[in-house]
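Worked Example 4.2. Consider the chain below.
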Amino acid sequence: METTPEENQDQNQDTKGTSCFECCIKCLGGVPYASLVATILCFSGVALFCGCGHVALTGTVTILETHFSQTAADHAVLTDVIQLMQYIIYGIASFFFLYGIILLAEGFYTTSAVKELHSEFKTTICGRCISGMFVFLTYILGVAWLGVFGFSAVPVFLFYNMWSTCAAMRSPVANMTSVDSICVDVRQYGIIPWNATPGKACGSTLGDICNTSEFYLSYHLYIVACAGAGATVIALIHFLMILSANWAYLKDASHMHAYQDIKTREEQELQDIQSRSKECLNSYS
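Applying the procedure from the previous section yields the following structure tokens:
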């Protein structure tokens, strides 16, 4: 029974649709979803920390210059330190953008689904060393970001003390006493020297500081920056687990390939022996 051209065309379209569907399934199977999630989390955390931290540091300088240190020499060192930290933020953002892409690429090339697409893939000592180096480097970065996370909580604590003091002045208990006796002295935190003037804010002056946009914005930006540092720590821990699993897979794959090579040589030698034995028997007969 012959088929019409229309039926042949429909069959070709079904075949193409099936092949495209299988290709899409293979491509989706080769995506390292764990590395992808860790990369997105790392990018988000670093972006929040760097962006919010940069703006919050600028607001902090404005608050100190306006309300706590009227002499430029008193906060000159702090200004230089903050500018240095802002430059460090630029470097951190650039480094982690490249490092996240590298780890994502490493996840693509070490995913088992990708190796199934390339059955002749074989691990090398260099590849295993690179994977081990990423494990070690990610561990070091994770420990460093734990310190960054702890350091980013310090300005949150300082701003929270100021905010809670302003909230206490507005409470009914504070109205029974002198509001001017409630003060916040930033000199006790070592931010500016003890001879800085005025160095502290009391009463209504402190309340006005808490109502400024610089204080409100900087306080909330420091909170977001601290949360971003925490998200980066979680992302690096996630990366560390992924890289350790990939390194173990590469190690097992290398042992498996070595075993398969030995087994193939032994089978080839056995076949050679059998062929020689047959040849000898044929010659005797």
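The chain is about 80% helix and 0% strand. Helices lie at 5-29, 33-68, 76-110, 112-117, 125-169, 172-175, 203-210, 213-284. Compare this with Example 4.1 before moving on.
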